[in-house]
Amino acid sequence: MLSEFDLIKEYFQRPQHAVPPQVALGIGDDCALIAPTPGLQTAISSDMLVEGRHFFAGEDPLRLGHKALAVNLSDLAAMGARPLGFTLALALPAADRGWLAGFAQGLFALADAFNIALIGGDTTKGPLTICITVFGELAPGQALRRGAARPGDDIWISGTLGDARLALAGYRLELAQPLDADSQRAAAVRMHTPVPRVELGMQLAAQGVAHAAIDISDGLVGDLGHILARSGVGATLDVDALPAGDILATQPAALRRAYSAAGGDDYELCFTAPVASREAILAIAASVATPVTRVGRIEAQPGLRLVDAAGAPLDLQLGGFDHFTS
Ligand code: ADP
Ligand code: MG
User: Fold this and answer.
1) Ligand 1 in contact with 28 (CB < 6 A)?
2) Going edge to edge, which strands form the sheet with 82-92?
3) Could you tell me if the CB of 30 is within 6 A of ligand 1?
4) Which of 117, 166, 193, 226 is deepest in the core (most CB within 10 A)?
5) CB–CB of 191/265 below 8 Å?
6) Does domain 4-138 have CATH number 3.30.1330.10?
7) pTM of the model
8) Going by CATH, does the domain composed of 146-307 fall within 3.90.650.10?
């Protein structure tokens, strides 16, 4: 039998040389200690994944390990912060070695890609629940806050949207024309292994070229709505300009519009920036190998106006995902 402490030691505590210098004290004491860079602010965010709510029962543990950390890093990216480390609170129905090995592998592959360490956490028996808290840092005044959008700003999107939602629709048998097996698999990669846009967010913040940002977790229309509400502004969004995912791009226009505008689980960045920043933003996007697309304009008039490529109003009846009303 694997005890709570053996489990932590075996799967989550790593050799000291694997712990980056910003961690003064890692797993094993009552608290971890991090050594912040003098003069910088600490960015902190938590995200929880619950079985049956955020992922299906029986989900591949390797993909879960990746996604649990990826969605947290995405929040740091949306702020423009540099990741430092993270904690992991786990409720597990059983101490299953196969599950733990897969989960740790997915988790640490992504952690190593960003050179960040797991610095502590909590482990308990219970319905499968994964809660990660990430810590990052950035210079005062540089954070890409939701409330910072200004009339006249362009609205930009990183990467592509909607393939994760398309994969979900495939799993749920919601599609009039089911996807072929290869397409379903390709779309599912976007759903299960999102790539947090950390370098893009950090560069946008550090170079001071963007105003507001948010990561798209609940669908663009809903998440952009948070920027508009916090900033006290409105916007016009060109739905046909939205960059659809590779698989979604092969689907009928109605589906393409709906899933790219309000699909959810994309983990791309939506950010606003003055027109004067266009060239600098394209240069940053090229330097971090992350495509960006201009999709609309922030306006003083409140509300979100969806239009098609010709500028005609679209009534898509879309909303963001809400855990208590959806
Ligand atoms: P405490 O009783 O003080 O809460 P625990 O006995 O729960 O401490 O944990 C012992 C050590 O292991 C602590 O340093 C804690 O941060 C760490 N830890 C517990 N669970 C995890 C986990 N899932 N991942 C990483 N570290 C963990
Ligand atoms: Mg504890």
Assistant:
1) yes
2) 41-50, 129-138, 82-92, 117-125
3) yes
4) 166
5) yes
6) yes
7) 0.94
8) yes
